[in-house]
Amino acid sequence: MSGSPRPLAGLRAAPDGEPAAQARTPPEKPRAPAHLDSVDVVRVLTVGLVIAVHVLAQQPGGVTLSNGAPLIVLHVSREVFFLLTAFVLVYSYRDRAPSRWWAFWRKRYVLICAPYLLWTAVYFLAGGGPLRPAGRALAGFARDVLNGGARYHLYFLLVTMQVYLVFPLLRRLLTATRGRHGWLLAGAAVYQVGCYTAVQRGSVPGLADPSAYLPSYLGFVVAGGVAAWHAETLLRWTRERVRWVFAGCALVVAAAVAVFFVQASALGQAPVVASAVFQPVVVVESVAVAWAFLACGVVWQRRRTPGRRLVRSASDASFGVYLAHPLLLQGLLAVCAASGLTAVAQRQPGPLVTAVAMTVVPLIYLACWSAVAVALRTPLSLALTGRTRRGTRE
């Protein structure tokens, strides 16, 4: 090359007669962590579980042995989502805490409060309750805003808001216990199993439904944070032992289904109770399924991420699909009732109805995904999907 050589990075030119001196350059800011394609896979698969659990829970005939067994597996979608939420937050800010927590909260709450308010209004109106007198209707809407009661899935947004609120404390906890995260995980596991046992036995006074409160899932949030803190080690371990992860998940799922049948058949619990989300066995099952989903992502990466744009698109649309799918399901159930299909299904064997209901899941997923893809290109993108309009910066 022609011309004089460039000085070494970090050195400055020295005055005449003096040796070169080390430049006092400001330290580089930690870079944003790399995007994890495997986490996109976890998000897409988990939304599929959410839709499936809501379809099966509302199939004609109610919860029986035929759909209760898959429900005890599908119910882990809730816990996997909270593991994932904590993982993504901690991974994003593990090496660089926000310079101002107020800015962090402002950004996060805008992205979740706008869709929460809009969809609460949508489901309040879709519920078909009386709108007169106006004062009573407004009071009912306000109550739904406070407790997430407009539809059965909106509790998740309330809990996520609580996670955002305490995230600085979670990050401080993970920093303070560095080197002792194994003990932290053990404590989180004991807490979560104890919490679910107390809820299942009805020994939490004054709390009929703990779904909308962060303490109900605190162990999962801590576990997700620890996993993100050691993300590279976790991914490497999973990559090297994919078969172990899948085998372990299969054993845990089989054990959970066995527990369901023992409780529903031998112990006489109603199937709807035996398959409930707060069963203690769901704690172990949730971790196993989440890990298996991550292993699916790792395998997909190993195969050079075929269809990466499609998976990324589905991941970007996942929150909007989550928000919208109960509305589509409500319409589908109304059509089935009006056309007589519901009455026909009630006369069929339970396993057959469950099998047919499962075929509806991908159809609902694809329909909502298509609608969200359109919404992302409109000025209402933020309120409808929790994401800024395509072509703008978040």
General description of the model:
With 394 residues, this protein is mostly helical. It has helices at 37-57, 65-74, 76-93, 101-126, 134-147, 155-176, 181-200, 218-229, 231-240, 242-266, 271-274, 281-302, 308-339, 341-345, 350-375, 381-385, and strands spanning 11-12, 21-22. It has a two-stranded antiparallel ribbon. The chain is globular. The protein starts with 10 loop residues before the first strand and ends in a 9-residue tail after the last helix. Residues 1-23 have low confidence and may be disordered.
Give me the Rg, rounded. Answer: 24 Å
Output mean pLDDT: 89
Return residue spans where pLDDT drops below 50 for at least 5 consecutive residues.
Answer: 1-23
Q: Helices and strands: which structural class?
A: mainly alpha
Number of domains: 1
Shape: globular
Order of helices and strands: EEHHHHHHHHHHHHHHHH
- The residue fraction in helices comes out at 55-70%
Secondary-structure topology with pairs:
Elements: E1 11-12, E2 21-22, H1 37-57, H2 65-74, H3 76-93, H4 101-126, H5 134-147, H6 155-176, H7 181-200, H8 218-229, H9 231-240, H10 242-266, H11 271-274, H12 281-302, H13 308-339, H14 341-345, H15 350-375, H16 381-385
Antiparallel strand pairs: 1-2
Comma- or semicolon-separated keywords:
394 residues; mainly alpha; two-stranded antiparallel sheet; 69% helix; globular
Outline of the structure:
By secondary structure, this protein is an all-alpha fold. It has 16 helices and two strands. It has one domain (34-382).
